[in-house]
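Exercise 7. Given the components listed, write out the predicted structure of the assembled complex. Treat all entries as one system.
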Amino acid sequence: MISPSPSPHPDPAHPARREAGTVVVVGAGPAGLAVANILRAASVDCVVLETESRQFIETRARAGVIEEWAVRELGRRGLAGHLPQRAELHSACEFRFAGERYRFPYAELTGCHHYVYPQPLLVTDLVREYADVRGGDIRFGVRDVTLHDLDTDRPAVSYRCPDTGERRLLRCDFVAGCDGARGVTRDAIPERHRRIARQDDGIGWLALLAEVPPSTDCVLFGVHPRGFAGQMPRSPGVTRFYLQCPPGDDPENWPHERVWTELRERLAATGAPPLTEGRIVEKRVLDMHHYVVEPLSHGRLFLAGDAGHLVAPIAAKGMNLALHDAFLLGDALVSYVTEGDGAGLDGYSAAALRRVWDYQEFSQWLSDIYHGVASGDPFRAGTTLARLRRLFSSPAAAAAFAEQYLGTASAY
Ligand code: FAD
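Answer.
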């Protein structure tokens, strides 16, 4: 239960310039910016701390697929920005296996779409709304962020200013830990108060961004004996591609010619239009690993987004989960601060984790499909192909897949 607890000790170890506020949000990704905007809209005072510059976060390319329920929620809160005008609406994806193409029309099955809107555009919209429109306090380029007194009812966050080197301490009522997979807030929870469940698929993906138009109007999944390959449209002139590779592989092992040869081979199918080859502007290897922190809160600290759970981009779920957490946490903080109602904060972790675990399970299932044929195990390859064929022969299997892929279950 959120209730007053022992007062914080003074800060003899932190001779820092002090300020006070209600909520400190650590991290300005989709999760932190959505929480901050919700607080700001309810006139709950908050400060956002971000280690990178505004320009950096507004151009960092990552996700691109947003589920329709998340778009609706953003819109309801006045946070959709340019998304309704600029996002591409997708209604199908295509699997390629055994040399053939299989189009999966998920919008026909669920009535819902995927919105393709690159993460940097969403972040740009959210920063503009928070800082420029709603006048919110956001501090970029901060260093050495440290959390203090989480077990008290007045925790604090300190950081070093980038320009002066001065240390500042922000006293607050709550800390929102939204600093992603490499942040510090998760580790501020003592080990005895948290469990981190981890899964490593032992697989790498070479993640590429290329300045080329997509070869089809939808996402492509190539399930091939040489390994998985994917094509995810991002905009009319930019496409993301993935190629399965050994975990920890060096991107330099993948020169231009090798990349395009593998993509052509793994995405080949009867009647498929040729891939447009072009300049690769980003190339890095992502290891397919996942974790979940339980619970997502400790004292006055609440984790949201990748800070609390990482799901590899197998099913395009991470940013959607980050937004889901942010909607729950933002609303719960507002209820507590404006009405004294702590039910939302007390139930936050359990409510958020239900969707997190559901999406993790779906990503595992899809990971088995993507990687089974190339596993070298003929039994696993056989069951993978059976699962794939079932999606296109059984209406019940197709409906279940579409519901999970679009995140449209009525309850989690
Ligand atoms: P982040 O976006 O990581 O934001 C955290 C912020 O905190 C960052 O700005 C960081 O600079 C800052 N920070 C870090 N440490 C500190 C600190 N100590 N103090 C202050 N600030 C700090 N998800 C989807 O839903 N759909 C997709 O299609 C998809 N595709 C992806 C493709 C790739 C290649 C990758 C890598 C990811 C993809 N994802 C996708 C996942 C998605 O990008 C993440 O899940 C999402 O960014 C999580 O948002 P977040 O706000 O929790 O964390």
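Discussion: The chain is about 35% helix and 25% strand. The two ends are 23 Å apart (CA to CA).
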